[in-house]
Specification:
Blueprint: H1 3-34, H2 49-69, H3 81-105, H4 113-145, E1 150-155, H5 159-170, E2 176-182, H6 187-195, E3 201-204, H7 211-223, E4 227-230, H8 234-237, E5 242-247, E6 250-255, H9 263-297, E7 303-310, E8 313-320, H10 331-334, H11 356-363, H12 371-377, E9 381-383, H13 390-393, E10 409-411, H14 424-436, H15 440-456
Length: 461
Amino acid sequence: MKRSELIFSTLLLPVDFVMLMAAGITTYFLRTRILSSFRPVLFEFNLPFERYLILIIVMSAVFIVTYAVSGLYQLTSTRKTLEEFSKVVIASSAGIMAIIIFIFLRQELFDSRFLVLGAWFFTIIFVSLGRLIMRYIQKYLVSQRDFGIHKVMIIGEDQTTQKVVRHIRDNPAFGYRIVKHLSNPEVAEVKSAIGNPGIDEVLLANPNYPADKVIEIVEFCHENHLTFRFVPNIYQTLTANFAFDALAGVPLVELKRTALDGWGRITKRIIDVIGSLIGLVILAPFFGIVAFAIKWETEGSVFVHLDRLSGSRLFKLHKFRSMMKDAEKYKAQLILFNERADSPLFKIKNDPRITGVGRFLRCYRLDEFPQLWNVLKGEISLVGPRPHQPDEIERYQKRHRRVLAIKAGVTGIAQISGSSDLPFEEEVALDTFYIENWSFWHDIKIIILTALKIFRDKSAA
């Protein structure tokens, strides 16, 4: 990490503190100056501004601790906006809960609930805004002023290398500048090029570069205090998720299929249960309206129960019926019109079997809401790969079956990246990436993006 990145990462703490103070002061004056005309202030004598200022200083320190625990001050060169916002929301909620619990344990009567709720709301807004401003300042300085950029030498000539090169050139705000690009050099040529001033990082994009040469280049980089990065080959990617153990004194290395394990799996299941319960309760009136509309238009059941595989488990996936009665028996007659003939999947953009109500439900992906019952039962998760049909899986190649490593999901990274418009191989690649790189924050981000996609993207119709 370069010095400029360290500067911006460490500046976040004082910026957050200032924004926390601003949020607290804004809440106080909003209640005492603006809202007081609607509802008189009752705490002007026992909570004057001077005493309140001391309280928000202490409160800001509590929030800073929760931010630190949530990882908002980890030193990193790149920060994803949505993931960072999610952490701010969760950490701020944890901070305000800690304060509420403290007030409760002290058996104190707090004179204004607005000060608590308002402080929570404005904290999220102000802190997120402060971090957004810092991000834009950093991007401007990096892209327009070359402040703290990484001067990179790239080694490689294959498609992966070209992809990396294009990304660096198309995204100057990312902070990389290509100083030298060597296709398949000898070690001496690399050392000679590195010897020229201006290179501070070597990026080996060729995954098949000879191992003995790689070792020599790495040692040279270490000796000259240069950063070395590389794109792993297929054997190295197999160790992306691993764990050490011992048996009879013999060390063992476990190659895991996914990062989803241990407490991560427990956390994911808790979120699934809470999320599905809340969703089913809130959507209960909506389910009644949809059921009436489906029965009004066509005969047949309100729900369809489809055979699907989640991991290695066969189950019945529940959806609102969006097609005519007994639609499955007409599938063989429509197979010639399949728009995904290059994959094991079946998809027709304007499927004649879809009803009028069904087209509306699919347009907004409302037909999938009954899957919350599958989530509650533990058959699928809120986030995961697409549930797979048994007849489609029979035609999967070996590499495609990696998407069966974990539970399927109501939504997933493929659904927010193009859904049915994605080529099958790209869908598999995205789901595989999710499986191998699962994290709690990835799930939160996918859920938020799915909610936004429901209103913005009508491609599912």
